[in-house]
Design goal:
The complex is a heterodimer of chains A (815) and B (265). Chain A has 815 residues and is of the alpha/beta class. Chain A has 19 helices and 46 strands. Chain B is globular and about 50 Å long. Classes of the chains: A alpha/beta (815), B alpha/beta (265). Chain B: Pfam families: ABC_tran.
């Protein structure tokens, strides 16, 4: 069976005020500058840069970039009419995109500020008052240019001139967005400033430009990230809360079969939350408006509309129609959503009698250890008039336990108890049904029953717990249980025999039965009609089509969850099929060519952290450079996981005495990825020091290269530099290279260079396995141990994310 | 409990190293396998732990259950432990993290299905996982510290990468620490005494003695009888050219010390 097609890549519909033509020439550059209302010096700067770009050759070293077609790229897209000042003013789809990449609304309250780049322009920013009071400027680059033109003009392009390399010149010509940060002298910004970047359109270039100026004695940590970012979902035998699902768990997809979960994604969501209520109120589920749900629109299959009712539906066209994924927002009352029948996953070894006995136990049975006799007891309580019922239970328990049951007649309660002391029977019923009215739960063997055995089981259950309402031409089957999980399981079991049962919920509360006041637990009532003539629910073979009764909307602020499921890209929420949310999928490559310039004044300290996880068709070619003055400190922490090709070598130019620079770099290259990363330290002044630590991991045919430069000028005496580059290769197909360059023009230096290349050795694996670890656990431990020195430098949420991402990428590398 | 080797043969590629070794190790016994260089002592240890480089014929039986086909991990989970002669370093995987994870894998996951089949990287600090192992994190950590103290291992070693930059003696003591902490049912010590000074040797012998007291069956594989000065084995087997040529009580070890192996070739 194939339900629907994978049409949603989670690319938002493009809705732009202005989109430049593809390709690049003088008029495109002029138009960008004109649209942005820039001063003439910037337009001239762009034009000059364009000329350099057109002259410059692609680098002849590093990764192969010849496949980039510069004429097939949109260089500028303006998403909305000007910047907006508050979150709520943002267009809904842009907010959605932000939500999806996890801009945490609540986080903003404690983070110093968030600036997010949606395609080419920063459209939303928030700066806390505390920042403003300290005189810190944190703006998108376009606003920075507009509001602080003089400062920008003084520094822009001075650290990375357009002529530096082809991609720097390209960025200089067409840049858009990015951040402008200015920290006044002596100011310490304690919380990291964060920015998120994301490419949303196919063939889109992203050319953000970041300029950070840290005045004397100041401190700032800037974090840049692109991190892609949920109710109950069906697993093998039961529903579980979505947030408790973990990668590698098996859950049921829209085809009713088990699939492996690749990832659980979570994000904060602030906005409308929809509650979709199908027939069977218990199966109502909550969902964010853009989340696709497998649906047939009533409007596609409807016929005439009578009175004010919903339109009638042609069963023929309904069953012919193939359901498709439609955003929840577009759903209406009466539309049909899909409830796949789950397929039993194993052959049950239970016999007919077993099934009948378990049904009785489920309805009327209990088991306990007799306190004084210390004997295991299985007991069934029946009404005294139900002679046949008592007889059946008696025979089955005797057959199963091999012991003669006792019959205890309690005349005051008009009840007969069938009791047997048997440990084997107790274990049998515990295994398959559990115990306790509210906590009974069926074993996977029971859940895989089908056909006649299932009917036997359900029949005996119904004789106990259920009641049957016969009306003319129709029978209503009802069973009431205090166990929520049991109700879910019964609904699922019934789907095996082609019955869509509704679950109603009767809330707990005080109640009166025959004059006695009692407190009743919440009851779950499973209802169905076996011989319906007409029904609102249609059986389409492998799934039921269930109409929506009601859709409610409410505001929501909190975490939401989403699963990434292998093979079928979907999962079941309270039994209904919904789609994965995934990062945008583009068939064509995108280009990201950013420029980051940082000026670290005397005794100032700047740390710049990047975790990039672009999708694997992005060329990530970024120039990052910092100029460090006397006793200043610059730290680059650079994590490269995604992208097709990354070429990035954050640099420190140590211009003042005792300046210090550090580069920490992690690269992870999987299949079809090439991470060419490293760092540069240029010692111009004496007594300067630098450290470059690079860790790379390659697997599945991926390739990592370390490329680094340490240069010491003739006047730079007493320089210290240390370079450590370690590579870990996970399999034979993968590759790692090291290209260190040293240009030392001074004898009075202390240079250390260490490089190691290791494979996860059989001996390491054997050692950990001999300690009881599985191969995959052992591999993960080795990899995590390998990157640990860098991960511990990351802010906590990035460290967690980094470990999770690496773990995800590792999947399938075992073997 | 007992661990039985029945007509065990071991091959490296096509070369037969172990010919037909049979022996039975009972809980609480110490067996010493002694032999000259190249007699196949280490091969015997690796074969018992299912190292992938060794092909094995014959039978290995643990309590009437044949485990010859079991993988290294499965054997470990059934309570077999091996202290390696020269254990490999794994930078970044700290001793304490390895021991926590390992303890949970050995004592927690098999008995409790809810912690099985989960993501490969578990946070070993989660109480749920300790619950399955029937011990709390702090109890575990305390026990670990006590063992480390008894073996004269400085606590700072626990947060270092396992064997990363450790000296020969430190590595051996770290193997001993693992044996004590992980509570195996049978422990194999491959040349645990080589490269140890007298103090370290006594410490290791003390460790083996306390394992024996807890009922662990012990197989010591050694070239010299140095460690046997501090430990009294219940049985001594002489391994020459992959065959057990003589078995006897502790006095056999002294005899070898004075006469050498030549008498058995």
């Amino acid at each position: 069976m194939r339900i629907g097609k994978y049409t949603y890549g989670f690319r938002k519909p493009e809705n732009y005020v202005f989109k430049s033509k593809k390709g690049l020439n003088n008029s495109v550059v002029d138009e960008i500058s004109w649209r942005k209302n820039e001063p003439s010096w910037m337009r001239e700067f762009r034009q000059k840069s364009l000329a350099i770009f057109q002259r410059k050759q692609l680098p002849t070293w590093g990764a192969d970039l010849s496949v980039i077609n510069f004429d097939d790229i949109f260089y500028y897209i303006k998403p909305t009419k000007g910047n907006v000042s508050s979150w709520s003013d943002l267009p809904a789809e842009i907010k959605d995109t932000y939500d999806r990449i996890g801009i945490p609304e609540a986080e903003k309250r404690f983070l110093a500020g968030v600036s997010a780049q949606y395609e080419s322009e920063v459209v939303y920013k928030s700066i806390q008052d505390t920042l403003r009071k300290k005189g810190v400027i944190f703006l998108d680059m376009d606003s920075g240019l507009r509001e602080y033109g003089e400062i920008v003009k003084q520094y822009f392009g001075t650290i990375i001139p357009p002529g530096d390399n082809k991609f720097a010149s390209l960025n200089s010509a067409v840049w858009s967005g990015g951040s402008f940060v200015y920290v006044p002298a002596g100011v310490h910004v304690e919380l990291p400033l964060q920015a998120y970047f994301r490419i949303n359109a196919a063939n889109m270039g992203q050319f953000e430009r970041t300029l950070i100026i840290a005045e004397e004695g100041s401190y700032v940590h800037y974090v840049e990230g692109c991190l892609p970012a949920g109710e109950q979902v069906s697993t093998r035998d039961q529903w579980v809360n979505i947030e408790s699902v973990q990668p590698k768990d098996m859950i049921i997809g829209d085809d009713g079969k088990l699939h492996k979960v690749r990832a659980l994604m979570t994000r904060r969501y602030h906005g409308r939350m929809l509650t979709i209520c199908p027939i069977s109120p218990y199966n109502s589920f909550q969902i964010t408006p853009e989340h696709p749900v497998l649906t047939i629109k009533r409007s596609n299959v409807g016929r005439r509309i009578r009175y004010g009712w919903l339109s009638e539906v042609s069963s023929v066209s309904l069953l012919k129609q193939e359901p498709t994924y439609i955003p929840a927002d577009k759903l209406e009352r009466g539309d049909f959503i899909v409830f796949p029948k789950t397929q039993p996953t194993m052959i049950s070894s239970l016999s007919d009698n077993d099934c009948a006995l378990l049904g009785f136990y489920l309805a009327e049975g209990s088991t306990y250890i007799h306190k004084t006799l210390k004997q295991p007891v299985v007991s069934f309580s029946c009404g005294e008039t139900e002679k046949k019922f008592i007889g059946d239970i008696y025979r089955l328990t005797e057959w199963k336990s091999g012991k003669k049951p006792m019959l205890i007649h309690d005349r005051s309660k008009h009840a007969v108890e069938v009791r047997v002391y048997s440990n084997s029977l107790r274990e049998f019923v515990l295994k398959h049904c559990g115990k306790g009215a509210a906590t009974k739960i069926l074993s996977s063997e029971v859940m895989s029953l089908s056909g006649r055995k299932l009917e036997l089981f359900l029949d005996s259950y119904w004789r106990g717990d259920g009641n049957v309402l016969k009306r003319v031409g129709s029978t209503l089957m009802r069973a009431s249980t205090a166990s929520e999980r049991l109700a879910q399981q019964l609904q699922k079991l019934l789907s095996h025999i082609g019955v869509y049962a509704s679950i109603q919920v009767r809330k707990a509360g005080k109640d009166t039965i025959e004059g006695r006041r009692i407190y009743r637990k919440t009851q779950y009532i499973v209802v169905y009609t076996p011989n319906k003539k007409w029904t609102k629910v249609r059986d389409a073979g492998n799934y039921f089509l269930v109409p929506i009764e009601r859709i409610d909307t409410r505001p929501f602020d909190g975490p939401v969850f989403n699963l990434d499921v292998e093979a079928c890209q979907s999962y079941l929420v309270r039994g209904f099929a919904v789609h994965n949310c995934t990062a945008p999928i583009y068939s064509t490559d995108s280009l990201h060519a950013a420029v980051v310039e940082i000026i670290v004044k005397p005794r100032a300290r700047v740390r710049y952290t990047t975790i990039q996880n672009w999708s694997t068709n992005v060329f990530n070619l970024v120039t990052k450079r910092a100029r460090v003055e006397e006793e200043g400190i610059m730290e680059w922490v650079d994590g490269n996981l995604g992208s097709k090709i990354t070429m990035k070598y954050p640099s420190v130019y140590l211009m003042g005495r005792k300046a210090r620079g550090e580069v920490l770099s992690i690269a992870y290259a999987g299949k079809n990825q090439h991470q060419d990363a490293g760092g540069k330290a240029i010692h111009i002044a004496p007594e300067t020091s630098s450290q470059i630590i690079s860790k790379s991991i390659s697997h599945g045919g991926g390739r990592t290269s370390y490329r680094g430069l340490v240069q010491v000028y003739p006047n730079a005496k007493n320089v210290k530099s240390k370079v450590v580059c370690d590579a870990l290769i996970l399999d034979e197909k993968s590759r790692s290279d090291t290209y260190p360059t040293m240009k030392i023009d001074n004898k009075d230096v202390q240079i250390e260079h260490e490089a190691t290349v290791s494979k996860i050795g059989d001996e390491q694996l054997f050692y950990l396995e001999s300690r009881g670890l599985s191969k995959s656990l052992a591999q993960s431990m080795i990899v995590n141990g390998f990157i640990e020195p860098i991960v511990k430098e990351l802010p906590l949420e990035y460290a967690v994310e980094m470990n999770r991402l690496i773990e995800l990428q590792m999947e399938g590398s075992v073997g | 409990m007992k661990l039985t080797l029945l007509h065990l043969q071991a091959f490296v590629s096509d070369k037969q190293i172990i010919h037909n070794v049979s022996l039975t190790l009972q809980s609480g016994e110490i067996h010493a396998v002694m032999g000259p260089n190249g007699s196949g002592k280490s091969t015997l240890a690796y074969a018992l732990m299912a190292h992938p480089s060794y092909r094995v014929k014959g039978k290995i039986i643990l309590n009437n259950k044949e485990i010859t086909k079991y993988s290294t991990e499965e054997r470990a989970k059934r309570g077999i432990f091996m202290a390696l002669q020269s254990p490999i370093a794994i930078p970044g995987v700290t001793v304490i993290n390895l021991l926590r994870t390992s303890y949970q894998e050995l004592h927690g996951s098999t008995s409790s299905p809810q912690v099985q089949n989960k993501r490969p990287i578990q946070n070993p600090l989660l109480s749920r996982r300790w619950k399955a192992a029937k011990i709390t994190l702090s109890e575990f950590t305390d026990t670990l510290r006590d063992h480390a103290k008894a073996l004269h291992i400085d606590e700072s070693f626990l947060s270092r990468g396992i064997n990363d930059g450790f000296s020969g003696g430190e590595k051996k003591k770290m193997e001993m620490l693992q044996a004590l902490t992980l509570q195996p049912k049978f422990a194999i010590f491959d040349e645990i005494d080589t490269g140890l000074d007298v103090d370290a040797l006594k410490t290791v012998a003390y460790g083996i003695e306390s394992l024996k007291k807890k009922g662990v069956g012990i197989l010591i594989i050694t070239h010299y009888q140095r460690i046997l000065k501090y430990l009294k084995p219940d049985y001594v087997h002489v391994l020459v050219d992959g065959k057990i040529v003589k078995s006897g009580k502790a006095v056999l070890a002294e005899k070898i010390e004075s006469e050498g192996y030549d008498a058995y070739r």
